[in-house]
């Protein structure tokens, strides 16, 4: 007799807790973590086989964002964005290239992923991630446990792999100064630029809030 009662007393609580976890997982989809107001990240980008390493300094607190873009065996580009919509894209070599661009929207807001559609979980780069899609423009992968971004894919096929993610890291103020040749009357327009993070997102009108 005792041999029947015991297993039941073990199984019932188990069955109950299973029911509860199924119910709670159906009740609300996870939402992406807002971006920290300041962070530094090294990104590995692949745009149809063209590779880049990007130093991303996101600094919402000071209304600025910096992409320092090393093209593989190629140009080192500085893409400095201010929240007033002005971007300076320049080299610091003897070519002294600089382009000043105006965007109607400024730096990505920390909550720019709000309203994204949850697609479920998928393993990417060896990390189990929650996946969201935002307006057919970006697919965003975030580590289920740590909530850190791991990977994103633009609709163009351009992919980013997040190599480091240092919350609270801030680039020193003097590094945010565009060179003097950005402030000449006629800027050089001969450089070819690829939008990396914010530019592409801003153009798609992804700004929220
Ligand atoms: C990707 O690269 C291949 C090989 O260089 C090229 O043929 C193709 O047109 C490129 N695709 C896009 C979308 O740029
Ligand atoms: C935006 O801010 C930057 C940095 O302070 C400045 O250099 C630029 O002239 C400003 N642009 C406009 C349109 O006010």
TrEMBL record:
Domain of life: Eukaryota
Name of the molecule in the record: Uncharacterized protein
Keywords carried by this UniProt record: Signal
First and last residue of the signal peptide: 1-28
Originating organism: Salix udensis
UniProt keyword Signal, yes or no: yes
């Amino acid at each position: 007799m005792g041999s029947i009662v015991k297993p039941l007393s073990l199984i019932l609580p188990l069955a109950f807790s299973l029911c509860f976890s199924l119910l709670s997982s159906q009740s609300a989809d996870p939402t992406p973590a807002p971006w920290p107001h300041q962070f530094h990240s090294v990104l590995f980008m692949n745009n149809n086989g063209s590779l880049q390493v990007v130093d991303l300094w996101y600094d919402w607190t000071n209304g600025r964002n910096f992409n320092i873009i090393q093209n593989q065996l190629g140009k080192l580009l500085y893409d400095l964005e201010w929240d007033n919509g002005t971007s300076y894209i320049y080299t610091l070599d003897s070519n002294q290239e600089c382009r000043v661009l105006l965007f109607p929207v400024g730096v990505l807001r920390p909550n720019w992923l709000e309203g994204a559609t949850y697609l479920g979980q998928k393993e990417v780069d060896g990390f189990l991630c929650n996946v969201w899609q935002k307006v057919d423009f970006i697919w965003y992968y975030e580590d289920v446990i740590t909530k850190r971004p791991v990977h994103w894919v633009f609709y163009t096929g351009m992919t980013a792999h997040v190599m480091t993610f240092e919350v609270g890291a801030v680039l020193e103020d003097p590094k945010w100064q565009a060179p003097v040749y950005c402030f000449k009357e006629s800027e050089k327009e001969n450089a070819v630029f690829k939008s990396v993070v914010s530019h592409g997102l801003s153009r798609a009108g992804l700004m929220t809030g």
